Amino acid sequence: MKNFIKYTLILSLFAGLFQSCEDKYTTSLILDQPVTISDFTVNGVKGVINEKNKTIVVKVPDGTDVTKVSPVIKLAEGAVLTPAITSNMDFTTPIEFTLVNGDVFSKYTITVSEEFFIGFLGTAASASTITDDDEKAAADWFFTNYANGKYVSFADIKSGKVDVSKFRVLWWYYDSGRALPSIAEDATVLTALTNYYKNGGDLLLNTHACAYFWTMGRLTETFNMAIGDGPGGDNPDTWAIGVNVGGKHDNSTHPIFKGIPLTTDAGGFKSFPAIGSGWKEDHNYAILDVAAHYSLGNGDEAAYKAFTEKNNLKWLGTWDWMHDYWMAGILELNSTATFKGKGIFIGIGGIEFKQNAQGEKNPSGLNMYQSNINKLYKNSLDYLSLKN
Length: 388
What we know:
Elements: H1 2-25, E1 37-42, E2 45-46, E3 48-50, E4 55-61, E5 72-75, E6 80-82, E7 95-101, E8 104-115, E9 117-122, H2 133-145, E10 149-153, H3 154-159, E11 167-174, H4 182-185, H5 187-198, E12 202-207, H6 212-215, E13 224-227, E14 233-235, E15 239-242, E16 244-245, E17 249-250, E18 263-264, E19 270-275, E20 278-280, E21 285-288, H7 290-293, H8 301-310, E22 313-319, E23 330-333, E24 343-346, H9 370-385
Parallel strand pairs: 4-8, 9-10, 9-11, 11-12, 12-24
Antiparallel strand pairs: 1-2, 1-5, 3-4, 6-7, 7-8, 13-21, 14-20, 15-19, 15-22, 16-17, 18-19, 22-23, 23-24
């Protein structure tokens, strides 16, 4: 009798459990409807759909107004999208869409951005045939960090193989000698690059390439210059870049210095180290006697005003030990009515992309401050890549 009662109770419990499960999973919800976007197109450009991450990325041609985008979209039958797709949508920032079909939903983040290119200018036929060690190291770093980077040879500009107007920024790192190469001064090449700059293209020029700002006519005043192109020598010091000119003009918040660790000395002058002990080429292309050029004293604030206003530029950097208005080594050339593009001038010789592995001070050639140089150029390229 006891066993009969026990088994009856067990059977009753199982029956109740099965009934409970059946009640729990019986539903009128519509859960089998598809919630996918099968196609998202802007001006004929198909977006790349990543179903795993629920993202759609569309790269439209440079110059497309992403504040007025009229997408064409294909949804699963019965699906409703929020917000609704309309004409002239603003995709300045990515938009999250919610797709609902029946009682199922999914969220997609859609990004529409302009695809633009940055060019690395050079005299070599290709990036792989660059011979100068600093230029080669700069190119290797550039192509590792910029998927939208393209090599542009001067010869290809001359032949018409490359249309420089397709680039948002051009970077020329020339470290091979104080005299500019003849191909850069070729009439066809010079006209193409000058027109590029005048029409709003941006330029990053460093070391001896800084001379090109005069060649193109953006800078016209004749200054005394510090120009070095020799083999260099073994040096035990750390060379640094000062970022508050004259102690009064603090450029530490300028975008090209973003994220670079700065030190402040007892006098309040800010700087960052660029190259440590070891062999230094000292390939300067820097402007000297700035104040004297305007018949002013090195400590005269009027020298800063004259230099920046007459040349329409920002005076961003100097040798770190220089606390007056004698020398200019890093500049931003502002847009003008004639030259609508911006320019960054980096002419300080301590900013090498590859310290030489020679001498006794640092035979490995490993620059402990290389990350500061990389950051300076990354910031400069990213800053110039912003639309004017």
